[in-house]
Every structure is written in structure tokens, then in C-alpha cells.
Amino acid sequence: xxxTLIAAAVSLAISTAACQKTVEDNAADTAANNLAMNxxxxxxxxxxxxxxxxxxxxxxxxxxxxxxxxxxxxFEIASGKLAQSMATKEECKKxxxxxxxxxxxxxxxxxxxxAAATPPVTLPTGLPAELQAKLDALKAAKGAEFDKLFxxxxxxxxxxxxxALKSYASGGDVASLKAFATKxxxxxxxxxxxxxxxxx
Length: 200
Description:
Distance between the termini: 100 Å
Largest sheet: none
Structural class: mainly alpha
CATH topology of the largest domain: Ferritin
Shape: elongated
Helix content: over 70%
CATH class of the largest domain: Mainly Alpha
Number of strands: 0
CATH architecture of the largest domain: Up-down Bundle
Number of helices: 6
Radius of gyration: 32 Å
């Protein structure tokens, strides 16, 4: 009788341990599955954030697009005039002259296209703080330092303007501004090609 009770106790202990092991395994599996699901959700969330941020970089609304390009033109004209008088390299002086002419025409064309929108879009009259700071830094530069900073700023500015023009040309919301963007993109691309050929 005693042996029977001992055997029963041992059997019960083994069964309890097996059940406990099964519960632990199931808990471990559940935790692993939850972790995998969280990772997937985080990856999806990050991808959505990246897509949203990417779209935000290139303005799609007429008012945003006009403000971006108008500010770019104002900066290019102002820095072009500085290059005409302050640059030491002849190619920078010539490029400055071209900036004043081409971006002056761009501004005139932009005003026409913006006026044709319904409702009309008004161009800003002053530089945003970021571009004003860049212009102030350029004014303070001298000699070869001016030439180097001028080329760097122009490359950065033309890349951003080209991105905005291409984006609006393909997905803008106003026909007259889309036509302006389509026409203006090759001009900005030509400027950028010339800048990339310059030696710092």
C-alpha cells in the first residue's frame, strides 16, 4: 500500500511538472509572437513617418509652392548681385549675372502664373529667416572664402528648388503653376549642372 502511495505521488509530481513546462512554453511562445508583432508595427510606423516626411519636403499646395519658389528667386537674385561685385573668380561673377537675369524672369513668370490661380496666390515680399541668414553669411565672406560659400549655397539652393519644381510639375493643384514648374525645372537643372562643373 505504501509503495502504491509513493508511486502515485511521483506520478502526480511528474504530471504537475509537465503541465508547468507546457504553461511556460506557451507563455514564451506568446511573448515571442507579441514581440514580433510589435517589431512589425514599429517598422510600419517608421515607414509611414518616412513617407510622410518625404512628401512634406516638396510642397504640393499652390501657396506653399509659390512661397518656396519666390523665396528661392529672391535669394538667387540677391546673392547673384553680391557675386557680381564681391566674387574673385570670373566664373562666379558671370554666374551671378546669369542668376539675376534668369531668376528675375522666373519671378515675373511666377507672378503671372500665381495671378491665374483661383483664387490668385500672392508672392511673399521678404526672405524667410533661413535664407536671410545665408545671405548675411555671404555678405560677410571675403575673397576666396566668398567664392567657396557662394558655390556651396547655390548648389544647395538649386537642388531644393529643382526638387520643388519637379514635384509640383507632376502633382501640383493649379494648372498655371504646374506649367510654370515644368518650364522652370530645365533652367534650374542647367544652373545646377554649371555649378557642379565649377571648381571650389
